[in-house]
Amino acid sequence: MGILKALKESETKRFLKYAEKKVKKIENLSEQMKSLSDETLKSKTVEFKERFKSGESLDELLVEAFAVCREASERVLGMRHYPVQLIGGIALHEGTIAEMRTGEGKTLVATLSAYLNALSGEGVHVVTVNDYLAQRDHDIMAPLYQFLGLTTGVVTGDIDPSYRKEQYQADITYITNTELGFDFLRDNMVMSKDERVQRKLTYCIVDEVDSVLLDDARTPLIISGGGEEPTHYYKVVDMFVRTLKKDKDFKKDEEHKQIWLTDEGIDKTERFFRLKNFTTEEGMSIRFHIEKALYAHQYMEIDRDYIVRNGEVLIIDQGTGRVSDGRRFSNGLHQCLEAKEGVKIQKENKTLATITYQNFFLLYEKIAGMTGTAKTEEVEFREIYGLSVHVIPTNKPVLRQDLDDKLYLTATAKYNAIVEDVLDCVKRGQPVLIGTSSIEKSELVSSLLLEKGITHVVLNAKNHAKEADIVQNAGQRGVVTIATNMAGRGTDIKLGEGVREVGGLKIIGTERHENRRIDNQLRGRSGRQGDPGMSQFYLSFDDDLLRIFAPPAIKQRLKQLVTDEDSEIENKFLLKTIQSSQKKLEGSHYDMRKETIKYDSINNQQRLKLYEERNLLLDGKVDVFDALERAALEFVKQTFHSTFEDWKIHGDDESYFRSAKTFVEMMVSFGLVISLDGLNELEGQKPKTIENWLAEQVYPVLLERKSQLKEQEDMLRIQILQGIDQAWTDHLEALNQIKEDVRFASYKQANPVQEYNQESLIAFNQMSDAITAYMGRLLLQSNYQDEA
C-alpha cells in the first residue's frame, strides 16, 4: 500500500508541475488580453474554432482559450480566475477529478474547460445534482458564454419535452444527472428519430462528482410503465413478519445488511401459509416477499430512508438528504414499505428501460469531475471510471480548526453536550451548523434546542423548498441551523459581520456517517477562502456506527469504568476504532457497487446491442422489407425445427408425417400454403435439404407480400419497434428473476455472477428469437390485416 500511495502522490505532483507551467503561460498572456477590445476578444472564439477545424488540437489551444475565458469572465461577471482555479480547469480538461475545497469556486472553474471543449462543436454537458443548482449555475455563467459567442442550454425536470432538444443542441448544457440518464433511456424508446433530444455524448463535467458517480450509483435509473396489480401477498406477508422474532425466526447481518429465515422461521412460514414444502414455486415466491418485508421492517427507517407524504412513500436520497421525486425502490421493496406504512400499495410497474449511472457515464468519450471530497474514494474512481483524482491547492490557507471527536457512553449524554456547546456559541454570537444523519434526528435536536429557548432553523427533506436561502444565512451572527446530509451543497456560506472575530462558522456533527466523505462535506461548509471556522463531531455508543461495529465488550467494560455517564470518554484508541469502522463500511459499499456493476455490465452489452439494432432501424439504415423477409424465412425455419423435434429424436416415418401435418397446418394459419405431399416426399432427407425446399416455397409469397405493403413502410417500422420494445421489457423482467434466482448459487458452490452471465445470455438469445418470430409473423399475417 505504501508503494501505491507513493505512486498516486507522484502522479498528482507531476500533474501540478505540468499544470503550473501552463498557468505561467496563461498568466503571461494577461496583459495582451486586457489590451483587446470587447469585439476582438469575442472574435477569438471564431478564430479558435477555425484553427481547430484546420487541425490544431484542443490541448494546443488550451493556453490561449483559458486566457480569453479568464479575461472575459472578469469583464462580464466581475470574477477573475485565480491561478489555482486555472489548475482546476486544466484537471477537468485532462479528464480527471479536481478535488477543490468548498468555497474555491468550482462553478467558475468549470467555465474554462467547458469553453475550451465547446470549441469542437460537439457539445459539453455540465452535470449537477439538482434542478436548482443546474438553473442557478446556468443563469450565472450564461452571460460569459454568450459574450464569447457560444450558446447555452439548461435541462431540468419541469422543462417541456419539445424544448429539450433545443437545449441539448446548445454548445454548453447545464443538466441534472437524473434528467441526463432518463433522456438517454427515453431516446432509445422513441418511434421517430425526430423525437430524440440528445446528440452524441462527447464530454461532461460532473459537479459533486462523488455524489453522482458513487452515492447515486447505488440505485439504477429505471423507466417504468403500467404493470400488474400488486400481489395480495404484500399485506398478508406484512402482517406475518410482524410476528417473527429476531434471532429465533430470522437472523440479520447488519454490517452487510442481509437478512434470512432460520429453520424455525421456515417451519412457522410453512404452517402459516399452509405450504407442504418451502422449496416449491409458491414457496419461493412467499420467501421472496417475506425477505423483502423483513428488510423493509428491519433496515428501512421512516424519516431516514423514506418519508410518507400525502399517502405516498417517497425515497430520501442518502447522499443529499433530499426527496427523490419519481423514483421507487425496485423488486417489490417499495410495495413492502407501502404495506408497512399502511398506505395504498401501488401497481408493480414493469421496467421498460434501465441503466446504472456507472455504465451511462462510461458512454461519454471524456468525463471529468469536481468535488470537495473525492480522494478517499480514489481507488473506486480509478477502477470503475478510469478517473484520477488531483487535489488542487487552496487559494488561501485553510484556517478552520478540526477538533478531535468527543465520545460519550449514551446518546442522551451526547445530545446534552451538543446543546451546551450550541448555548455557548449563541452567547458569543458564533453561528452554528448542526449536521444530522436523518430527519428524525434533526427533529430530535430541534426539540432539545427549543427546550432551551434557542432560536434555530431546520433544513431537511420535509423543508427543502428554501434550502439555498437557509444555507446562505447560516453564517450570520448567532444563527443556528440544523441540516441533514444535504447541508446546501453548492451554496456558499458567507460570514456575517463580526463573525470572524468570534471564530467563524462552527460545524457540529451529531455522529460519524458511514462514509468519511459525508463527514468531510459537512466540515467543508466552514472555512471557505481563508475564513476562520471550526468543526466538532459528537459520538456515542448508541450511534449506529459504534453499535454495529464496536465490540459489545468495549461498551460493557466502559460502563464499569465510567462513573459519570454524562462525562466525555477520552480514549484515542476508541476514536481510531471508529475511523477503521468507517473504512470497513466504505469498502463494503464499494463491494456492493462493484457487484451491481458486474451484473449491469452483462446487461449493458445486451442493452447496447439492442439499442444499436433499434437505432439502425429508426434511422432508416436498415431496409424494413429486407429485415422482415429475413425474419420471415428464419421464422419458418424455427417453426420447422420446433415442430419436427420429435422426428429428429426418433427418426421414424410416423413421427415425420405427423410433424409435417402439424407444420403445414401452422403455416396455413399464417396464410402460407405448403404442399403436404411435397413435404412428405422429402422424408428421409437431411434437415438442411428440407429447410432449403421450404425457403423456395415461401420466397415467392414473401416477395408478393412485400410488394403489397410498399406504401406501409413507416407503419411497419413502428410496429417492429413496438415489438422490439415489448420483447426488451419482457427480457428485463426475466433478468430480474434470474438475478433473484442466482442469489442462492453459492449454496451449490457456484459463482452467482457466472451463473447470471450464462442464464442471461440464454434469455437474450430467446428474446432475439422472439423478436425474429414477431417480425416474421408481421409480414406473413399482413394480408389478413389488410382484409380486416
UniProtKB/TrEMBL annotation:
Q: Tell me which residues bind ATP.
A: 85, 103-107, 492
Q: Which domain of life is it from?
A: Bacteria
Its membrane topology, per UniProt? Peripheral membrane protein
Task: Report TM segments.
Answer: none
Listed GO CC annotations: cell envelope Sec protein transport complex; cytosol; plasma membrane
* Segments forming domain Helicase ATP-binding: 87-225
In what residue span(s) does the SecA family profile domain sit? 1-570
Question: Does the keyword Membrane feature in the UniProt annotation?
Answer: yes
What are the residue boundaries of the Helicase C-terminal domain, all occurrences included? 418-586
Q: What keywords does the record list, in alphabetical order?
A: ATP-binding, Cell membrane, Cytoplasm, Membrane, Nucleotide-binding, Plasmid, Protein transport, Translocase, Translocation, Transport
Q: What is its EC number?
A: 7.4.2.8
Predominant cellular place of this UniProt entry's protein? membrane
Citing just one GO molecular function, the answer is: protein-exporting ATPase activity
Q: Which reaction does it catalyse?
A: ATP + H2O + cellular proteinSide 1 = ADP + phosphate + cellular proteinSide 2
List localization entries. Answer: Cell membrane; Cytoplasm; Membrane
Under InterPro entries, the record lists: Helicase_ATP-bd, Helicase_C-like, P-loop_NTPase, SecA, SecA_CS, SecA_DEAD, SecA_motor_DEAD, SecA_preprotein_X-link_dom
Biological processes per GO annotation: intracellular protein transmembrane transport; protein import; protein targeting; protein transport by the Sec complex
Role:
Part of the Sec protein translocase complex. Interacts with the SecYEG preprotein conducting channel. Has a central role in coupling the hydrolysis of ATP to the transfer of proteins into and across the cell membrane, serving as an ATP-driven molecular motor driving the stepwise translocation of polypeptide chains across the membrane.
The UniProt family comment states:
Belongs to the SecA family.
Name the NCBIfam families on file: PRK09200.1, secA
Describe, as the record does, how this protein assembles with itself and its partners: Monomer and homodimer. Part of the essential Sec protein translocation apparatus which comprises SecA, SecYEG and auxiliary proteins SecDF. Other proteins may also be involved.
Protein name in UniProt = Protein translocase subunit SecA
